[in-house]
Amino acid sequence: MRIRLKKILNWIVESTSPFFRISFVMSLEFDSATFHNHLAQTTTSPIGISIERAEGIYLYDPNGKSYMDLISGVGVSNIGHRHPKVVEAIKNQVDRHLHVMVYGEYIQSSPNLLARKLNEITPGNIDCFYFVNSGTEANEGALKLVKRATGRTELISFKGSYHGNTHGSLSVSGNESKKSAFRPLLPNVKFIEFNNHIDLQKITNKTAGVIIEVIQGDAGVRIPNMEYLVALREKCTEVGAMLIIDEIQTGFGRTGTFWAFEQYGIVPDILTMAKAMGGGLPIGCFASSKKLMSLLTHDPMLGHITTFGGNPVSCAASLATIEVIQEESLLESVEEKGLLFEELLVSKHIKEIRRLGLMFAIEFKDFETVQKIVEYCLEEGVICFWFLSCPNAFRIAPPLTISEEEIKKACNIIVTGIERAHH
Ligand SMILES: Cc1ncc(COP(=O)(O)O)c(C=O)c1O
């Protein structure tokens, strides 16, 4: 069977016109059966649109249909897709070298320059950066570091939180329905309630670390009170527990400041980041003081290791991404754009809009309504998306580069979708 298929393919390649060949190869490229049968699936109903290219806030399918990416590929493309400066930085690095060594052994230009840049844009106590490949890996490193630093084992996290899908990060994520099939997970993990001052008493001198998203993203954009985060910081300091702030979804300008914690007047002991960090390439990082991070070099030596962490191409893309955010003053217009969305997304059917900067949850009475709206928007070329742990709401988190005109156009389609879903 396989041999026959190969023969047919050869015949097509050798004896057909170039036009036919191109269309045939294109149809293989976006072949839905291959996607469904030979690429592992995460749900039984993936969105399944084909993407040929992307530019700015738009994705394009092979027929040229455009989609406005109102979710930035889930928190990644904060400066839009294929920003020319990022593409140029990637090309320049590719022309010099790709991977040359596992993390931490050789001095390479792009990780060096990226660390300097991150040092400029993080608080004074955060001056040492461990580059990894993803958000979950950044959190794994942070969780190991708090145990190593305190000699304690208890980890505290929050109900509703999401920190990633590897065993450690999953252990400190709140959604029980996503965890039970994979137990045993990490022992000695406790969950406390977001914004609940009384629960802070559960943080004690047995606690190695507390991990928190400043804004709970996948719980449907849950925003804490200022006093609560300040009290949390004080409690951690009082009992000698390390505070890990996960800015994997909120970082790189999403909420209007470079880091969301800046708006709450607190600083973490360890900061984790990923997603938008690479401008479209995979990279993550856990960051702390040099003193703390040095613990990973002894007892045991190689306390955390990774082959691809600090990949030079990803680091070059990340540096360019931060420079774009700074040079184009992207943070300055985030609040204004967020307010414009809020002004335009008006319908009696919306139960609640939760927002900080350009990070939104739009809540409705039930999941079915959300489903209808998201599907309508997709048909009309606007991509919105669900949350992992908040079925009655959908997310909007567009590239920070979105224009006023584009916001108006997108909101028009979304509001029409909302009205139609209620007919
Ligand atoms: C707050 C937060 N932490 C961690 C992660 C995990 O990141 P990754 O998917 O890169 O492993 C995510 C991903 O959605 C996230 O939103």
Keywords summarizing the entry:
binds pyridoxal-5'-phosphate, seven-stranded mixed sheet, 14 helices, alpha/beta, four-stranded mixed sheet, 15 strands, 423 residues
Structure description:
The longest helix has 18 residues, at 404-421. Helices cover 38% and strands 15% of the residues. The protein is built from 14 helices and 15 strands. 43% of the residues are buried. It has 423 residues and is α/β, with parallel strands linked by helices. Bound molecules: pyridoxal-5'-phosphate. Pyridoxal-5'-phosphate binds at residues 134-136, 139, 162-164, 213, 217-218, 246, 248-249, 274.
* Helix and strand sequence: HHHEEEHHHEHEHEEHEEEHHHEEHEEEH
Question: Taking strands numbered 1, 2, ... along the chain, how are they ordered across the largest sheet?
Answer: 4-10-9-8-7-5-6
Low-confidence residue ranges: none
* Number of alpha- plus pi-helical segments: 14
SSE topology sketch:
Layout: H1 2-15, H2 18-29, H3 32-38, E1 53-55, E2 58-60, E3 66-69, H4 72-75, H5 84-96, H6 109-121, E4 128-132, H7 135-150, E5 154-158, H8 167-171, E6 189-192, E7 207-213, H9 226-239, E8 242-246, E9 270-273, E10 284-288, H10 290-293, H11 312-327, H12 334-344, E11 352-356, E12 359-363, H13 367-379, E13 382-383, E14 385-386, E15 393-396, H14 404-421
Parallel strand pairs: 3-13, 5-6, 5-7, 7-8, 8-9
Antiparallel strand pairs: 1-2, 2-3, 4-10, 9-10, 11-12, 12-15, 14-15
